[in-house]
Every structure is written in C-alpha cells, then in structure tokens.
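Anyone else keep sequences and structure tokens together like this?

Example one:
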Amino acid sequence: MKTLSLSLFLLMALSMLQAKELPSNGNDEVIFPITELQIYADERGFVNFSDVLNGEVEFVILEDFQPKDYSVDSYYWIRFPLHLNNIESKQWLIEFYDQTIDVIEAYIPTLDGSYKKITMGDHYPFYQKSFDHKNFEIQIDPKLHGETVYYFRVKSHTYADIRIAVRSINRFIEYSLFEYFLYGLFYGMIFIIILYNLLMFIAIREVKYLYYTFYIFSVGLYATCVDGIAYQYLWPNSPQWNQIAHGVFLFSLIFWAMVFGHRFLNVKNSAPRLHKAIWAVIFARVLLFIYAIVFDNSLFEYRNIEILPLSLIFYTGVYVLVRGYRPARFFVMAYGLLFLGFLIKALLNISVIPFSIVSYYSLHICFLMEMLFLSYALSDRVRILKSNRDRAMQRIILQHKENVKLKDKVNRELERLVDKRTTEIQEKNIMLEEANQKLNQQTAEISKINSILDLDNWKLKNNIKEILQDRLINKNLTLEEFNKIFPDEVSCFRFLDRLKWENGYSCSKCANTKYNDGQQKYSRRCTRCGYDESVTSNTVFHKIKFPIEKAFYILYLTNNRQNKYTLDELSEMLSLRRNTVWNFKKKIEQAFSDKEDSHLIITDLFSYHINKKVS
C-alpha cells in the first residue's frame, strides 16, 4: 500500500513537471504564470547552477502562490522544460514581462549539451538585452530539437511578476508594435495636454494651469518608469537612477496633484481647516522624500502610502463640492478615478484582486480618464466664471438702466426744489440786507464802546501788575493768595515748562533740538537718543516727595529775604515735617550759591506769572 501511494505521488509529480509544448494549430503564443512554473526559492542565495544541474535542489509548482508571498530577500530558480519537436520553420523566443526585475540569469542549452549564461535586468545597462525592447527576451535556437530545459535565476528588490511567455517572432513583432502604438497614443495625449495647458498659462497667467502642467508632466514621467519606456529611451545607461526614478516621479505626481487641487478648489477660503491639513501632509511628504532620496532609497517601494494624500485631496474636493462650489464636480470625478487607479494597483500588489490585463493597466486607464476630466474641469471652471461674469454684466446693465430712470426722476424733483428754494433765498436775501445795514450801524457803535473799554482794561491791568509786583517784591503774598496763582501741580509744571524751555528745547544728553511728548506730564523725549527728560530735572524741584505747589511757596519765601516765618511756623502752615522744610530750603540755598543770580530770575518769572494770572 505504501509502495502504491509513493508510485502515485511520483506519477503526479512527473505529470506536473513535464515539459511544456510549443503552441500549435496556428497559435503563436502561450503564457505560463508563476503558478504553472517549477520554482525553487533560495532564501540565502548559496545555490549555484551546478547544484541545480546536479539535482541537489527540489523544484515545485506553487499553485497557490500570490504576489504577497514573494520574498525580496530570496533568489528564485526556475526550471523551464520545453518540447521543441514542432518548431517547424518559425523562430521562437522566451519573454519575461516584468521589466523591473533587477537580475535575470538565464542558462540557455546549446547543441553540444552545455549551457550558455546570459545576464539581464534593470541593474545593468539597457544594451545588455538581447532585443531592444522594454521586456526581457531570449531567442530559442532553431537548431535545437526534442526536450530541452531552460534555467533562470531571478532576484529583485521589489515584487517581480514572474510570468514566462513563449511566442513566435512574428507574434512578438505584432504585439510589440501594437503595444508601442498604444503607448504612442497615451504619451501623445499627455504631450498635447501639457502643451495646451502651458499655452493657457502663457495666455491668461493663471498659476493653476502651470501647476496642472507640472502634474501632467509628472504623470507622463511616472508612467514611462512603470512601462519601462524611460529606461529604454531616456536613461538607458543609468541603471542606478532607474532604480529610484519611479519613486521620484511618483512623489512629484502626488506633490503637484495636491498643490493643483488646493489651488483649483480655493481651499484656503472655502475650507480653512483642510487648507492647514493639506499643507501639513505636503510638508510631511516632502520630508519623507528628502529622507528617502538621501538616506534610504528602499522607502520608495512603499507606494501604498500615496493613498493617504490622494484620499485627503479627494475628500477636500467632495467637501468643497457639497458646500456649493460647482467647478469641483469634474475635479471630484477626476480625482476619484485617480484614487480608484491607485487603489486597484495597491489591491493587486497585496493579492486582494486577481491579475489581469485590465487590472495591470488600470492605473494608465485611470490616468487617461483623470486627465480628460481635469482638462474638462478647467474648461468648465472657465465656462462657469464666464457665465457668472455675463450674469453680473447683465445685472449691471439692468441696474444702470434703473439708475438712469431714478436719476432723471431725482433731477426733476431737484429742479423743482431748487426753483422753490431759489425764490425763498431771494426773499431772505432782501431781509438779510436790511438786517446787515442795522448790524453795521450797531457794529460801529460797539467798536467805539470796545475802544473805550480796551483803554480802561489796559489801564486796569497795568495798575494790577504794578500792585502785584510791589506785593511780590515786598513779600506781601499770603499762602492763600499764592495758592490762587499756583493752585495745583499742573499750574506749577506749566510754569516750569515755560521757564525751562523758554528759549527752545535742547537734549541734555546729545543736544538734539527735536523731541516728542514723554511719558509724564510736560516731559520731552529726544527723537535721536530717546532720553526722556522731565520738566523738574536739573531744577530744585527734581525728585521732591511733597506737593510741588508747597515747594513753590517755600522757594517764594526763601527768595523773599524779609520773610519772618520760622521753620516751625512754616512746617505747620504747609502741613509738612520740619526736617522736610529745612532740607528743601537748604537745597534752594545751595542752588543759589552755585548760581548767584538764579533767585533773581525765578523771582522775576514768579512776578510775570502772577501778572498773567491777574490779567
């Protein structure tokens, strides 16, 4: 029983590992997915071709293999047996579809039974390929017959789509020409859209067209990296740059998509919170890009993170559309398609959806539809703005007509009122002329009376000044009389201001003559050095700690040498301490001793101030 089970198992294994037949009955192509290939995963990379050829490794068919099962750290050996009995007169080749595989070591059987090694991959310059084509092709020697076995060793730093196609040269040329034709249409449309929007920017100078141009240009470059067109035509001799180019242009695509969307939707005014969120995401994405390109290029392989910024800008478009911004409708449809394309690609990479031609090229299809919708969105925005402008112009014209009618009505009413008012004014003018005649007569009489009064006032003022000066010199002013002249602090400050700066202001620090008002009353701040000089600085009243009007009276009595008040009497009269009065009088006498005629100047100014008060 055990022997029978073992025999059945070996029979099933041999049936699974049997050689592949070339297409027949007019069919020029057959494609073998990884689930139909004989695979050995070399996790450490220690296995060499001699080990494989000697049968030291066991090849199996991974029927349940999914893209998520692919290990970027492993080397994958592929055993590919072929029956070449029906090769006939056609020429055949073996092709690997995935042009992003880093290294493919192909071991090709020869007529003498040995193997020839061919090395390919995007880690090597493009010219090392057997064909000038974006994929990897190996031509089958037409002289080989019978069962032959091909071996391949595959290594890639990212997921490799290991599918092997066996097709005739005619079929290869046919499908390649058609594929490049479709690429030409796709990139031609991108070029036309770029040129159109660039001309629109030059014509109307709206920066959103420039942002859209950068975005479409980034889409084109990213698509060429995904398709392998860029490596074939743009940088065929730069395999190192080719490893990171897709990540660089994917970042550029997402960056300009967000900048253009932010500008197109006017997010700063329509959604201030989302405005901050978008710029925060852009800033974070830029930092991640700089880190990836400078320190860790492997971060470019985490392409699914682009779902986050795309989701944010798509949500912003929906939010602005719901709030009534009509131009956002086609924008939402366009970014919805782009979001769908990236989502399908992400689901394909994690094996949620099966592989197919449509799913593989879903991002290209969504790119194309998105570009068409965005172009229409820009045109629709212009149309809406033009429609709004036309409606506004129509409203302005109607309003202008209404204004003309209203103006004519108001003018007629004003003319009637002006005529009526003119008649009233003429009557009042006659009355005013009569009143003016009477006023002129009264003015002449009043002028005579005023002349007499001015003369009397002048005489009276002179008499008062003489009396007050006599009283001031003869020390006849009492405290009550003195308080009538200097009743409060403000009157004292005003007197000191006139005394101190009578001949003009000059800064005591830098001698500047220009000033502004200071922080305190009657203080002056120098416009050059900023020194704030109070009205009491450089006087005997500086920094006194009792009312300045009392200090004025002490100065007045001190100037009056015939004063009979004692310190105790003066202290009681002014409600000040005896030491305070004595210290201030000593300060005054010290100032007099420093400048002998200062008391005479102050006495004269006191007299002048008293006369002004009286007058």
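And example two:
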Amino acid sequence: MPKNFNIEMMYKIKYILFACLLFAFISNIKAQDIQFTAKAKSAVLTGEKFQLVYSVNEEGEDFRLPPLADFSVLMGPSVMTSSSTQIINGKVTRSRQYTYTYILKCDKEGKYNIAPAQITIDGKKYSSNSLNVEIIKNAGAGSSQAQQNQSSSESGSFSNDDLFIKVTPNKRSIYQGEPLVLTTKIYTLIDLDNVSDIKHPDFRNFIVQDLSDASNINWSYEVVNNKQYRVGTFEQKVLYAQKTGTENIAATEIEFLIKQRVRRRSQSIFDDFFDNNYRIVKKRVKSKPIKITVKPYPSGKPSGFSGAVGQLNMKVNTSTNKVKVNDGITIKVTVSGTGNHKLMSTPKFDFPTDFDLFEPTAKNNFKNTVSGMQGTKTYEYLIIPRFPGKYTIDPLVFSYFDYKAKRFKSIKSRPINIEVEKGEGGEEYTGGTYSPSSVNREQVKFVGKDIRFIKTGKAHLKPIGTFFFGSIGFYFGYIIPLLVLLLVFILYRKRMHENANMHLVKNKKASKMAQKRLKKSSTLLKERDHEAFYDEVLKALYTYLSDKLYLPVSELNKEKVSNLIEERGVESSVKDELISILDTCEFARYSQESGATEEMDKLYKRALDNIGKLDSQIKK
C-alpha cells in the first residue's frame, strides 16, 4: 500500500475525530445552558389551593407531570411564554422563558414529595428538581375559620386577632455593651399587600444595628390560641446598651396595606389567583412595650478598659524593626472575634519621646450577627524616629469584658524593639546628644561688578565737629536694647513656666485644636462620609472638653460634662446645646439613616458656635 495513502487516511481520521469532539463540546455547552426548575410553597394548610410552577428557558415538547396521587389537580397546565432582550456594550442577548402552572389542593396532612417532571428539548430529555411540600392541619375547625376570615375580609372589619405583631428580645437582662437581639414577627389570618408606614421606638440609650428587613420575608405557619396563623419575620435588630439600669423600649407600630375581598357574582377557582376582586385598605397594628435590665460591669475593671465587650482577641504587628532616622514605621493592632468592635476606643501605646506620632486610623471589616459584630477592626499607628539608637516600646495591654464568662479579660502583646540607624545626612549620636556631623550650607556669593559707580543720589551732610558719641541717640542706643532684652527675658521665663504646666497649655490650645478637628470633619462632609463626619465632630467636642476640664477623655460622659461646665459658670442654654449635639452625633453615627447633607452642615455650624461660646464662658 502506498505510503501517501496511509498519511491521507490518518489526516481524515483526525478530522473526523476533531469534528466529533467539537460537536460533543457544543452539545454539552447547550445542555449546560438548559434550566428546568420546579417551584411551590414549602408549607400549605389542608384544603388550601396552591400553585405548582415549572419553568424552562428553552422551548420543549412532551412535557410530563409526575404522579400526584395525594393531590387534587384543580387546574392546569396553564402555559405562558415570555421573552426579553438586553443590549450590553453593543452585544444583544435574547432569552425566552416557558412556564407550566398547575393549581393543586390536598386535604390530608403530612409531608409529601413531588417527583421531578420531564420535558424533551431537541430530542433530549431533561428533568426538573423534586419538591418537598408539608400539608399542615388547619386549626380553624374546617371551613368555619376560612368562612369567618372571608366574611371579615369582605366587610372590612379586621380584628386584632386577624393581624398583630410581636417584638421579642432574645434576653431580658444584659450587661452594658452586650448584644441584644429584637425580632419583629407578623401574625396574620388575612392577605397582606404591603407596608405603608413603620414607627420604630426611640432607642435613645442604645446603639442599633440592622440584621434583616422586610425585603424578603419567609412565611411559615404557627398555631396561636387554636388559630392557624401565617407567620413571617419582618426584621431583626441588634442593640448595644450604653447605660445601666432599667430600660423601657416603646412599642413598634406598623401600618399594613391589606387586600380586602369584594363580593363577586361568580364563583371560580381562577378568582383566587387574580386581583380583580380585591381592594386595598389600611390597618395600623402595635406591639407591646419591652422592659430590659442593663447590668453594670462586675468589680475588678482594669484601668485600661476601653469599652470592648465580647469574645475577642488582639494581635500587634510592626512593618519593620530596623529603620533609619526619619523613616516611618507602621504598627498595626488587630482586634478580632465577636463583640462591639464599632464602639471600642483606640488602644494607647506608650511611645518614646524621641518619636513623632500621628493620629491613628481605624479600619472596620466585620458583619452584624445575632451574636454581635463578627470580624476584625484594625488600628494603624504611624511613628517616625528622629534620633538614632535602640528603643523599646512597652507591651500593649488590651482589656475587654467577656459577658459569657461574666468577667474581665486582658491580652498583653510583646514589647516592640526598634533599632534606629543614622540617616543619609550622617547623623551622629554620642553621649545622649544628637548632632549632625556636617551641615549643608549654601555658599554666599557676591553678585555684582568689580567697578563701582560714583553715587549720584542726594547726600546727607553734617556740620564739622558733630559727634554721635555723648548724644541722646547714643544713650538711647544702649538703653532701648537693654529694655527689650529684659522684656524678652521676662516673657521667655513666663512662657517656660506656662509650658511646664501641660494642663494650662492644653487649656489654651483647646479651642484651636477643636477647630482644627472640625475642619477635618468639614472635609468628610464634602466627601459624604456620614459615619466618619459624626465620629470626627464627637472626637472634637470630647477632646476640647478634656483639655478645658483637665480630665482624660475616657473619664468623660454627658452627665459628668453637664455638671462640670455648669460649675464653671456656663449658661444653661449653651450646656443644653452641647448635650443636644453630643446626642445627635452618638445616635446618627451608628444609625442606618445618617441624615441629609444640609442637616450635617447645620450640625457642623452648631458645633463651631457652641465651642466659641464655651471657650468664652468656661472659667479657668
């Protein structure tokens, strides 16, 4: 057999195999794109009609419904077709959807499994998913309850038993800072269309975080007072108490839009699935108030406790341990676990005096859960050494309260050793005194010409024999510099004395530093960073009060500030304005609705004006 013939046969076989593989690949892609799904309610009352819907994204044939021996098929299949077209970046995408709808009913309680349906597309059979449906006994004594509900729906007289809400706390007694979960559930015997208004209580002494809302309510059934209610979780909130004592949480009010049935002439099973025989009416329902006991922390609170509550861990990392003079070092403190991360105060290091320090920044990476905030909060500190040498930064002690163990816990980091070398300028460090070995100076050059021109301006001539020595100007020339020198010396000594008193220095600079912080908050206002804006205004006010009242920020609270500034002679109107600003910031900082930009701008101006009034009225 010729050799060329064998080569040609090999090439033909390769082409055939390639074509088969390509066809199989394309068929597999198309098979993967077919989506055939089944949907129905997971729980249904005995005798209640419900829909069984099958959806497929390709046109098919020979649709086969699985055996439904335990169900009565009241209607179906009702076949509907829908199509959509999308244009994204010039690319046109078209899709079609085919639905097969059945209306079923079951009169016997129990748990049933609906087997997969089958359909044929392009000669290939596809199966849907199976479904589990629980048929629950109707506790309304057969049809009497259904008739009663229908009668009340048609008449519009809905009672408090037809629709009500419950707000339930997961605990009745908590520690300050411990998460409290409030769950709002809806109990209804009637058809609801939507919610038109919600009135939440004023959580004044709590920080509130939302867990869920009514965007996707999962309904189930529950028997209450021998009546079968549809029950859905409307929302969940996590509260963190900021004050000890007994707290009364007011009622939650919700206004519902209800489908009210209108009497019709004909009786048809199709009417239950269309809105032609309904109108919308409103009904406002109200929950019961809740009483919560907020317990104080037990004895043994550490001195460095910053308000952290939960089950937490702490880790300290440095960007480097060996740098040159004027190079920056970043120290990261990461607090992880479950707790009230957002409410923690910034941990404080005891840095050497030879380091320049910058304001630490905080980054949040956590999510809200029923156990609290889960994730991490990272604090970053930037420090710059100015002199060479070997330094040791004392360990950081992080204290928190574990409400499950009912005691305080502390985590201690390792000491940070930093070696600082001489920089490029050739700095030297001998005998505890820093001195540069060489100083770069610009050479002084004379720019001009070697030939001077004759002065042509007006000359000032004096009579012969006139001397400056012994004149009045001569003596004043000695006396005035001596007086100026004496005055400078007195002012310098006074300045040194004042600088020695750090409290007095902070007191004098309090207003200036507060205004500087408020300028930063105005930048955050322009950037629409609501949370950071309120946080910065709050820091500005508390830092200002700390400097003016000679107290650390950690010991300040609204009640103590109110008493102290009143003792210093501050007017009651100015004091009330300050407390109002602090309340607004604390509430808005953690609220989901932080407020409009106009309101934040007004708050910024109020804070500036209040600091000015406080500065003029607080007596030293």
